[in-house]
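User: Fold this; C-alpha cells only.

Assistant: Input:
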Amino acid sequence: MLSRIFIVIVFSYVLVCISAAATAQNPASRELRGGELFIALISSPSTEQAQRLVKAIDKTWEKSYEIMVIETVYILQNEVISLELIHLLQKKTLKQYGYNFSNWYKWLWNKEEFKDAKYGDFKSALHKKIDPKFENYFKGRNEM
C-alpha cells in the first residue's frame, strides 16, 4: 500500500514538472507584451481575436507602440482593426491626424524615438505580408 502511495506522489510530481515546463515554453500561455502583441495582431486569423489584441495594446500602452500602430495601419488590410488602431493612437497621443500618414511620420520624426525590444521581429512579421523575402531581412534586427 505504501508503495502505491509513493508511486502516485512521484507520478503527480512528474506531471506538475512537465506542465510547468510546457507553460514556460509556450508563449501563448503567458501575457503578450510590446512587439509580441503586434506580431499576434498581424497574424490574427479573425477580427474578433484582433479586437481582443487591440484592447490588450490599449491596456499595456507604451510610447514604443506609436510607430508599430502607424506601420500596422499602413499595411494591415482590415478596415475595422485599422480604424480601432487609429482611434487608439489618437487617444493615446492626443493627435488627430486620422489616416494622414505624412503627419504621423512628421510627428514621430520630430520627437524622441522609442522602439520596442521586438521591433525588428515585428517589422519582419509585418513586411512578410508584402513579400515573404522581407521576413529574413528584418528578422532579429531588433536594434533597428
